Amino acid sequence: MRAVVVNSFGGPEAVEVVETEVPRPGARQVRIKVAAASLNPVDAGVRAGVFGGAGERIGLGWDVAGTVDAVDAVGAVGAVGAVGAVDAAGAAGAAGAWSVGDEVVALHYGAVKPLGTHAEYVVVDADAVAPAPATVDAVHAATLPLNALTAAQALDRLEPAPGRSSLLVTGAAGAVGGYAVRLAARRGIAVTGLAREGDEEFVRSLGARHVTSDAVADREFDAVLDAAVLGEPALAWVRDGGRYIGVIPHAEPASVRGVETGAVEVSADGARLAELVRLLDEGVLTTRVAETYALEDAAKAHARLDEGGMRGRLVLVP
Length: 318
Known about the structure:
CATH superfamily of the largest domain: Medium-chain alcohol dehydrogenases, catalytic domain
Number of strands: 16
Number of domains: 2
Helix content: 10-25%
Distance between the termini: 10 Å
Structural class: alpha/beta
CATH architecture of the largest domain: Alpha-Beta Complex
Order of helices and strands: EEEHEEHEEEHHEHEHEEHEEHEHE
CATH topology of the largest domain: Quinone Oxidoreductase, Chain A, domain 1
CATH class of the largest domain: Alpha Beta
Largest sheet: 7 strands, mixed
Strand content: 25-35%
Radius of gyration: 20 Å
């Protein structure tokens, strides 16, 4: 099968499409035939060596939408199709509730891994998987897991109180920030969105009570979710004793004025992802796709990612 990897760190030119063996699911795992996989800023960080792994072949991609192609069958091996999958009849239910043919989405967690979701097939833990949305296609569904889970888990860390807490979300028009605004507003949180000029109408449509594109130094918020990775400037907008959460683990600013600081490290959670899929199908959440690229054009997609200025995610289609 084809897979997108980096063998050395660098810019988009470091991205390679290689031929490799189709992975087999182990205990409590499923294999997904990839229909679409989004490209995220974390992939550029992996490509550049931010997360280490020098000397290793590293697979790219965290998000996936596709079809369950094989499941763990407690050691029983048969064949389905031409890729050596586990026998579907004997395997149904062996990896949770998943069966061959199920349409799903999943988060494949991990910065340094031999294979990611930017491939024709990927193996993930069964409890990282959720049913695919019914209201959008695979390309749009592939943009949901990483960004929506990050937003939801960041809000869990901040614990804003409905009707009593004020929350500032930086990068409110971005993928993580946009989901955070929508999820927080749905909980009854008074949200202010920090976004560029031209994005005010969009951020308000997500449920933000206030939107600003300039400094908010005259405001003190109970909590700040720093999706734009501003660091200390965003920390300055938290009231004494409030909370600050960033989106890059171990990169948060040091605590000042009794402010609790931290960063969310997203975790794969199929049950939580299923809740987010339900919200998508109900119209509470929306997905945004900027462009699609064929898998073999992954380097071009990385070059476009580096240019910035997109509204929505880039998505690779095998």
